[in-house]
Specification:
By secondary structure, the protein is mostly helical. The protein is built from 3 helices and no strands. The protein has one domain. Helix content is about 75%, strand content about 0%. Helix 1 runs antiparallel to helix 2 and helix 2 packs antiparallel against helix 3.
Amino acid sequence: MTTFALGLDLFTIISGLAIITMFVALWKAIDYRRSVPAGAVSRTWNVITGLVVFFFLGYLTTPFFVLLTEEVKDLIVAFIFFFGAVYVLISLRLVHRIIQAMKGE
């Protein structure tokens, strides 16, 4: 495997960038919660924030992938993909609700 600066391989560099990015996303999700109105949108935002927490924790496992068995790695990745799909579906529903509210429906 090719190594780069500080002896890090590409997987470690990309994983580190992903962890930092997900941390910023989590921070923003918590910060934006104050501006979300109560009701269905707020409940949905809480679910989205919970999924961001889940993703962040999943991303934190990537530096330890070298210590895990292939089965465990596959299971972690499968859960991240599944909940990623759930996240996209919930986000689309939330955006649709916001559009409806803006249109006055």
